[in-house]
Design a protein that fits this description.
Layout lengths: L24 H41 L5 E6 L2 E8 L2 H12 L7 E7 L11 E7 L2 E9 L3 H13 L4 E8 L7 H14 L3 E6 L2 E7 L3 H14 L5 E7 L9 E7 L2 E6 L1 E2 L2 H13 L9 E2 L8 H15 L2 E6 L2 E6 L5 H14 L5 E5 L13 E5 L5 E7 L2 H15 L4 E7 L7 H12 L4 E6 L4 E7 L4 H13 L5 E7 L12 H14 L16 H12 L6 E6 L6 H21 L8 E6 L10 H7 L1 E6 L17 H6 L3 H8 L29 H14 L16 H12 L6 E6 L6 H21 L7 E7 L10 H7 L1 E6 L22 H4 L50
Parallel strand pairs: 2-3, 5-6, 8-9, 12-13, 15-16, 18-19, 21-22, 23-24, 26-27
Antiparallel strand pairs: 1-2, 4-5, 4-7, 7-8, 10-11, 10-14, 14-15, 17-18, 17-20, 20-21, 23-25, 26-28
Amino acid sequence: MRLPKPRLPTLPLPTGWAAPRRLPQGVIALAAFAVAGIAAIGIATTAAEVIERRSVKAVNWIMAQEGITWVTASADGMLVTLTGTAPNEAARFRAVNLAGTIIDNDRVRDELAVAPVTQIEAPRFSVEMLRNDDGIQLIGLLPEGPDEQTLALAAGELSRGIPVADMLEIAAYTPPDGWQPAFDFGLAALKLLPRSKISVAADAVTVTAIATSEAEKRTLESELSRMRPEGLSVTIDISAPRPVLTPFTLRFVKDAEGARFDACSADTESARSRILAAAIAAGLEGKGSCTIGLGVPSPRWAEAAEAAITAVAAIGNATVTFSDADVSLIAAEGTDQAVFDRAVGELKAALPAAFSLAASLPRPTTVAAGPAEFTATLAADGKVELRGRLTDDMVRAAVDSFAKVEFGAGKVYNATRLDPELPDGWPVRVLAGIEALGELEEGSLLVRQDTVEVSGVTGSQNARGRISQILSGKLGQGQTFKVAVRYDEERDPLAALPTPEECMATLDAIVSEQKITFPPGSAEIDGPNAQLMTRIADALNECTALPLEIAGHTDAQGSEDGNRALSQARADAVLLALQGRRVEVSQMRAVGYGESRPIADNDSEEGREANRRIEFTLIGAAAAPAVAAASGGATSGTASGTASVAEAAAALSGTTKGTTTGADTPAEGTTTLAAPLPPADAAACVANITALLARDKITFDPGSDDISSGSEGLVTALAELLKQCPGKPIEVAGHTDSQGTSRNNLTLSEDRAKAVLVALKERGVDVSTMKAVGYGEDKPIADNGTDEGREANRRIEFTLIGAPAPASAPAAEGAAQPAPDQPAQAEAPAAPAPAAPETTPAAAPASTPDFSNDTSPSIAPQEKTLRPSPRPANNG
């Protein structure tokens, strides 16, 4: 069935409407072509931009990967242009090739420039000047100019006939900035120092010299500090060797005025301590002094001096004089003969074989009228009047000439008379007395047949000892003389120079009034502290160059590493501020300890404020004890962790010390250390030693077995610990890092262990059951690939023989090792190990161990133990 076709209804059109005209077919085709062209152009432009961006991005990425930062890439269509300045042709060629690995070589356009070849740099100018009694040597390279002629003329003037080795060379270049003031300072130092080596560069000058005495050393250091140009880095190292004492003299007197030394000489620190201890036991009051020097006639000098002083104390009123190995003991008139004989007999038995004794007990005699006398009077203005008797004209002329040489030609008045009946040896006694009088500022001399007496005032603390040396050496053994000399500080030219301890006291007083502060998290010193820094600088400028540690500390807020870095930066800032104020900082060092050394509780704002501080410490001096915190005091671990080695030694010897206040008692608020109880057994003894070495370590001069001066206090403290446990079988082990050959390191470690054993023996330790062993580099405790690890491996250890070795396996390579000076470990004192049971291997043996079958390297030091000569090595 078919449906009908639908039809739309016919609508009527509006009036006036006409049907639109249809566009021609050609116009429609043209419009479509135009639209397609525009679309194609847009697509092509977008595609080109994408290609340009990606090409530039790829080229820049490969340049950055290779570290080439001087190339700039830009695109123009498909082409990539390279611009910039290459340091050389090779670098330009490499950059172009790298770009060709990312895009086609045909698309790379090279517009790189090449930097022109620079002029040859000027050489480093430096000169080394060496001067001693044998001649002057000049070595180095100088800039073209008058410096060579100036230096040659100065060397010629200083040589005075001594050969001058001129090995200088000249380069025709402009001298660098700072060269001229450095050169002028070095030349001035050469003129000032007769035995010296001066190394001069534009940025630094190093002065190494030898002084004849400690006083001359301080004077030279002050003069060099005054001459140092501002901004120039100057390193000054002046050594003052021990004086040679001739004769080696000791004179101890005990009479109605009390016990005293007219002269005292010792060969070592240990000998001086023994002699002074004997004198105190004999009645010496106050602080005694004893000069350490060279020339001792016997290594048993201290033993002989102790015995002689004990004899004087037994007699009660006597004088003993040592002149080298000659000993004179003279008792006072009225001494009981039995007492005198007993004391002399005991002294003869106690004196070592090298010493000879002359003892006398004067008997009362009637003095004849008008005894033969010679007198000399030295006035304050330096004039000398000679009166009394001389034997003949020849002796009179000799005495007159000798006095003029000693005091000056125009200052001697001779009113002596002749007497041919004078006793034998009279001229020698007169000349010795005049030489002794020359040591005084003002005084008198009396020469008689039975005595020579020198009295007066001096401005030198060594004058009394020097006078005793002269008289004992010139008069001979058994001769009587008397020294009555008073020291006047106002006449001492060195008394005005403060000692390092006095300088530190002044510095501590300034810092206690006001602390150095910094803005939070900053290393810049607060502006209001400028006047404080000036006061500190003024105080330091009054002193000679101090070996000073400037320590920075923070609270515990923030990270440990960040606090350590901040404390280091603040310590450096203080050092720079002092240097900017013309303070000699060549012997100062800045150290940042971060939060590792608190003195107060970090949980309170007051405690954190106290912990944020700058501290000044004299290098080599005993550190002050920890100060109690304002909010209840520091913890016990902190107090013990900051106790110095010197304080530990004092505590072990039964004394207590506080902060130095000029009195015998500790200052209020200071921490004192009580003497600990002796260890229960050998294991506890070694544990105490290990705990002490955990806070400090024995160090040596680089490549040498000489114990550094900074470790002398530590060795003394170790000696005190060992004296509490004598006869224990202990091994002293030396270890090195891996630098140098294994054979040399083994030898060096053994020599260092032996040196420690010798030092302990010198301090009175019984080392008969101890042995020294060197392990070289075989037992590291840290990674030898780092400076910190090598420093940790260079060590001395004390181990109980027979006890199990501690687990100290070598660190795995690359493993993180704590630095030896890390505060977290260095400051925490190790608790003494509990006493080992008697049944364990660590227990001390019941009797002295037998080492007869022990073939390991060992040493039992005798009185003249010789240390092996130093060997070159890299171990510090």
